[in-house]
Design goal:
This protein is α+β, with helices and mostly antiparallel strands and about 170 residues long. Helices cover about 40% and strands about 15% of the residues. The protein has 5 helices and 8 strands; from the N terminus they run αβββαααβββαββ. The protein binds zinc ion (ZN) (2 copies). The site of one zinc ion (ZN) has 7 residues, from loops.
Length: about 170
């Protein structure tokens, strides 16, 4: 099951209401309620669109990591929007955002997640050498993982190394 049902969506709305109530009572500000969309967007678990006051949740990662979405991902994205409403454009994961997560929502201020990305069926994975990032196909990536093959940069001849961020879903 890779698609959230209506009950899931309702629960997400309810979670947002709960978090908004907490933040509003502490800051004594009537925060604007964000819209929620459900689109796949690469490895992102969730994203926050500041100018449109909108949260996008990855439906596939949601279905495979429900718990973490309710405990962390929703609070993470909502915090971006609330910080924007309070302070305008500041560092995305700066002290204002960290304070919102830790002190207001009482959650750790994590900026990545160790979700299993296999259900996303991504078409490529990022590797790198000193020249910069390189994309490898899933087929090649799997060979590297199984230890069957190494790949080299055509320019600098270095072994391509998997980047750390490909293992973690972005937030
Ligand atoms: Zn290179
Ligand atoms: Zn973030």
């Amino acid at each position: 099951m890779d698609r959230p049902c209506n009950t899931d969506k309702l629960q997400v709305e309810r979670k947002i209401d709960q978090l908004l109530a907490i933040a509003s009572s502490l800051y004594e500000v009537p925060f604007k309620r964000p819209a929620v969309t459900w689109r796949k967007s690469g490895k992102n678990a969730g994203t926050a669109n500041l100018t449109h006051n909108r949260i996008n949740l990855n439906p596939v990662l949601f279905c495979h990591n429900r718990e973490a979405f309710f405990t962390d991902v929703i609070a993470h994205e909502l915090s971006h929007l609330l910080v924007f409403q309070l302070f305008g454009r500041v560092q995305p994961h700066g002290w204002q955002w960290q304070k919102m997560m830790e002190e207001v929502f009482q959650r750790p201020a994590n900026t990545t997640h160790n979700f299993d990305l296999a259900p996303l069926k991504l078409k490529s994975f990022y590797y790198r050498c000193d020249c910069g990032p390189v994309e490898l196909s899933v087929r090649r990536h799997n060979k590297v993982i199984r230890g069957q093959q190494r790949y080299f940069c055509r320019r600098c001849k270095q072994t391509l190394i998997a980047t750390a961020e490909q293992q973690a879903a972005s937030l």
